[in-house]
Design a protein that fits this description.
By secondary structure, this protein is α+β, with helices and mostly antiparallel strands. It has 8 helices and 28 strands.
Length: 521
């Protein structure tokens, strides 16, 4: 039996491990200052304070809680909050604890636990926060769960270490012929050796050629990069004009859009600032120009908008200048941030990212269409797995809509943000022609009916009939599982469950039916 002295020592040791070192008076003041910064949404200051406190007091509830709130408000660091939150012991002393716990569960896709936590704080009479904010995150949990359940038929592939590094890579901008890719990176071999307040290198623009299907070692675009932030933005549809972003060296809280000439090899020259109106005393972070060159869409946090960053547009004047810039209005813009516009070559579809809507992760990708009268349709979420539990931005769709690039901090990447290629198999252009025939056991053609049902949604995909030679043609989509019911008068009907991914247009599906009046095997 364990003696009392040893029990006492172990109990004291356990308390020491659980609670850690007691905060000094000075550090208690630091904790209070940290929460004041959180109250005023100064998460940079709060993060610096709680990070230092956590080094000294890794088991203190208030320190862990404060640091968790900071992580939840830092892009790409949200998932770090859950471990800090789940190991908090005295939750009752922490104001609105279950609200932040619910958000931490959301970042990990643990929707049922997120819903339980958010409902707990919603019913808490002692909560000190707006119920609307709680309800908003509850809506996100329900919507994200539904979108992930109804996953799209797309394939999202990381571009690999030739493009992505352990640092941040974002804003993919491909040459129109697909032979090269501009992108933004914080990798070490940039123009400046400086780092920002979070310890990351400043952004630079890089370019990689694609040779024989392989991305080559990226080169720094030193002709446009500076010692501050420089970022890729977009390229004209003919590939002759490259748009990019630069921090204003005289005012680092301001940034502007520039344009440079671009040749077929990705070489840039003659950079120039876009005109006033498009640029302002605020930040203009991203932009795109329509295929005909007559419209520009851009994001800005200038005063007078609906939230943080809003989307704006302007039309080309006969003089060649841009006309009056106009906010795209509350149908598109929210109280959050709208960014990364991309106007498709179809002249109708505008893709953008937003963190102000009910979606799956932080920033989600949405699309809206321009109608004949110039108005816009209600934005629609592009769905999972295009959108993830992380931040998904800079969606660039190919002219045939079969592929797209995006940048994301989703799980499984090499760094905080990576660049991905999306194969959009559920687009109409991916429909495949499947040829087939129906015959009897002796090889004679049959006049049969083929009913096709989608196995996932149980919807009728089509009813087809064979011709005089027993042949038929049907349309299928990749990544879909179908149920084929083949019927012919005087013959046993049969049901086949099949995906047509392995068949090409030259592939043929042969079906044999057994006669009801035949003893044939």
């Amino acid at each position: 039996m364990m003696n009392k002295t040893l029990i006492t020592v172990l109990l004291l040791f356990g308390v020491s491990v659980m609670w850690g070192q007691k905060l000094s008076k000075t550090d208690k003041k630091e904790v209070k200052k940290g929460f004041v910064s959180i109250e005023f949404e100064d998460f940079i200051d709060a993060n610096e304070r709680f990070t230092e406190l956590y080094k000294k007091y890794p088991n203190d509830d208030e320190v862990r809680f404060g640091l968790a709130i900071c992580r939840l408000n830092q892009k790409s660091n949200e998932r770090e909050a859950l471990d800090l939150m789940e190991n908090v012991y005295n939750t009752k002393s922490l104001e609105n604890y279950y609200f932040y716990l619910g958000r931490a569960y959301l970042a990990h896709g643990r929707f049922e636990e997120a819903i339980t936590s958010l409902q707990t704080i919603l019913l808490d009479k002692k909560k000190s926060m707006d119920e609307d904010e709680i309800v908003n995150y509850l809506s996100i949990a329900y919507e994200a769960k539904e979108l992930i359940t109804a996953a799209r038929k797309v394939e999202v592939n990381n571009l690999g270490q030739a493009i992505n590094s352990s640092e941040q890579e974002s804003v993919p901008v491909a040459l129109p012929n697909g032979s090269g890719l501009f992108f933004t990176s914080r990798r070490a071999d940039n123009v400046s050796e400086q780092k920002d307040h979070l310890g990351n290198y400043f952004q630079d623009v890089f370019f990689s050629k694609k040779e024989n299907g392989t991305w080559q070692n990226p080169k720094n675009c030193t002709e446009i990069n500076t010692k501050l932030h420089d970022a890729a933005v977009s390229i004209s549809y003919d590939g002759s004009k490259f748009l990019f972003f630069k921090t204003n060296p005289d005012n680092i809280v301001q940034g502007d859009l520039y344009e440079a000439n671009c040749d077929a090899e990705g070489n840039l020259s003659d950079s120039r600032l876009l005109q006033d109106g498009i640029n302002s005393k605020s930040i203009e972070s991203s932009a795109c120009i329509s295929a005909d060159g007559n419209m520009i869409f851009f994001s800005s946090n200038r005063p007078g908008g609906y939230g943080g960053f809003d989307l704006y547009y302007a039309k080309r004047l006969p003089t060649g200048d841009w006309g009056k810039e106009l906010n795209m209005g509350p149908l598109i813009n929210t109280s959050g941030n709208e960014d990364a516009p991309f106007f498709h070559v179809d002249g109708q579809t505008l893709y953008f990212s937003s963190d102000g809507r009910v979606g799956i992760g932080g920033f989600d990708i949405y699309s809206t269409k321009m109608t004949e009268d110039g108005s816009w349709t209600q934005p629609e979420n592009e769905g999972f797995p295009i959108n993830s539990l992380g931040h998904d931005l800079y969606y660039r769709v190919s002219p045939d809509s079969r592929q797209a690039y995006l940048s994301s901090d989703r799980d499984g990447g090499y760094g905080s943000d990576d660049i991905y290629l999306v194969n959009i198999y559920d687009h109409e252009s991916f429909k495949t022609v499947i040829r087939g025939n129906v015959k009897d056991v002796n090889g004679n053609p049959l006049n049969a009916k083929i009913t096709i049902i989608n196995e996932q949604d149980k919807n009728l995909n089509g009813i087809y009939r064979t011709n005089g030679k027993g042949n038929f043609i049907l349309l299928s989509m990749p990544m879909e599982q179908y149920q084929l019911i083949i019927e012919c008068k005087g013959f046993e009907s049969t049901t086949i469950r099949k995906s047509f991914d392995e068949l090409t247009e030259e592939g043929e599906l042969s079906i044999t039916l057994k006669s009801l009046n035949s003893d044939a095997p």
